[in-house]
Structure formats: C-alpha cells, structure tokens
Design brief:
CATH architecture of the largest domain: Alpha-Beta Complex
Oligomer: single chain
Number of strands: 18
CATH superfamily of the largest domain: Medium-chain alcohol dehydrogenases, catalytic domain
Distance between the termini: 24 Å
Helix content: 25-40%
Radius of gyration: 20 Å
CATH topology of the largest domain: Quinone Oxidoreductase, Chain A, domain 1
CATH class of the largest domain: Alpha Beta
Shape: globular
Number of domains: 2
Length: 341
Amino acid sequence: MRAVVTTPGEFGAGGFAVEHLPDPVPGPGELVLRVAANGICGSDLSTAPFLPAGTIMGHEFAGEVVGVGADDADVTHSFRIGDPVAAMPVIGCHRCRACLTGDVARCPSARTLGLGVLPGGLAEFVVVGAAESVLLDGIDPVDGALVEPLAVGLHAVTRAAVRPGDRVLVLGAGPVGLAALHWLSRGVAIDPVCSDPSPGRRAAALDLGATSVCTPDDLHGHVGGGFDVVVECVGKPGMIAAAIDAVATHGTVVIAGVCLDTDSFMPVAGVVKETTMHFVSYYTTSEFRTAAAELSKGAIGSSTLVSEIAGLAETDRVFRELSAPNDHRKVLIAPAVATVG
C-alpha cells in the first residue's frame, strides 16, 4: 500500500513522504479499512515534530471494510466486506472500567492510531478496532472522516454543561471550534460568539452557528459582564488566560485546544471568579456514534466543513499551509485522488 510517513530531520525541512509498505492484516477483533479520507487536525500539526521518523499519522478517517479478523464471529456478524465505517483512533482492552463505560481513550492499555503507537489513516489501508467502529448509514465514506472532529466538538460542549440562556464564547474557528459551534447552535445557548483572527474562519463560524464573530483584538467589546461558558479551541500559549479573562463569575471554561508549549496564567483570576475549568480530549463511544448519526441525517456535512480534498502526495504541502495563518476549514487527504479542491 501507499502510505504517508514522517521523514527524518526537523519538521518543515523534510516533513512527509509517500512510501510503499506491506498491506496490513487484521487480527482478532480488528478490521482493515480502505481509507476514503483522513482529516488533518490542529493536534497533528502540534505533535508531528515529536513523532519518530516512519510514523503513519492520521486519526480522523473513514473507509470501506476490506478485511475482517479471522475466526472472529462477533466481528463477522457486525461488519461485512464493503461496509462503510468510521473508527475511533484508539483500541481499548474492552475489559476495564473505562472501556465498559465508553471512555476508551482513558483505558490504561489503550493503543492510539496515528500518534506513533499504531499506524494511522494517512495511508491506503488502516487497521482499526471493530468495537470502536461505527457503520455509516447513507454517508459518503469521505464525509465519514468528519465523524471524529464532530465528536471532539460534542464532547467539549457536553462537558461545558450549557444551561438555557447561557452566553457562550468559542475561542478559535478551526475545525474543533466549528464543530463546537454546530452543537451549540442545536442546544440551549443564546447567541454564541466566536473569536478568530482569520476572516475566512470567522465567515465559517457564522455558517456553523455563531450569531456574531470578532477578532481577538475586538473581543473585549463583546465580553460585557463575561460569558457563562468559554470553549477554548486554539491550543496556543496565552489562551487559558484569555478564556479566564472572558468568563463571567461562576462561569465555566473548557480547554479543548491542544497546546504542547508551556503556558502560564494567574490562578487568582480564576479564584476570584470561582471559575470551573475542564480540560478535555477525545470523546465517548456514545458521542462518536451521535456524531455519525448527525452526518447520517444530513444536519452537517462536507459542504460546510471541508475547504479542500487532496491526495496523499499533497500531505507535506497541506501540513505546511495549515501550520501558517490560513482560512481553511477542514482539509481532507483522500488516497484515491491526486488532488481535488
């Protein structure tokens, strides 16, 4: 199969290359998917420099079942060759409390895909856990790559526990921020506000449910007495402080942005406001299935979330573009095409 692998050297100097590798074989409880598309995430941009050479990245993907674990009656009954499937990028032990409650990412034995443990979706084929997979009902498998980021946004909004009439601010209109806005627009929040420096992304935020948008420099004029809920989706130093500054007394801050740099803020700012703060990642199996169902009923899709679809050979270029200021929404890598978009 063709697969995109990280290359030796500093990120940006080499970056990514397409190599030919053996086709994967499923073990018990596993499926092999022919990847239809894999989305590039902000956390990919952050973690790429720290991964060993030869890593196959990619954790937002969907595809068609082309292999089922041998002699596995449960898997054979659930999935058949040709089924369109989206899979969580983590495989649990299926026995611990985390797995049994659907919080697979917190399984002590969890094996992640695309982060240097198991190969990810930037390839023609990928091995996934059947228990962590969901059948796509009436969805183009390319659109199925959106299940994962939609689930991330849903998890952040769920942890925020938005109450009727709450004023909500989303910091950042990248894919996770846009996903959060979608779920907020279908809930009980009033007039969600989104802050982002990019004109294109601010326009996307309005498409996905924000009632007003602003630049970070203009945010102060929107704060007023503070927001009841602030969802931080940027993942850069200074954003925690910005979120605490914007939240109201007794408000809630949800940190969904993946920041791998040292950050600092004044705890007293949160102490004075008695701020509740949640740091979130991943999602539950239930939230993943809810995101798939949202796509199935046509409530959201690639027409609003995707700004470009490119082939495997474009991965290095895509990472470079997304690492700089840009107006992209979600960029998908589709192995079956050279480049589209």
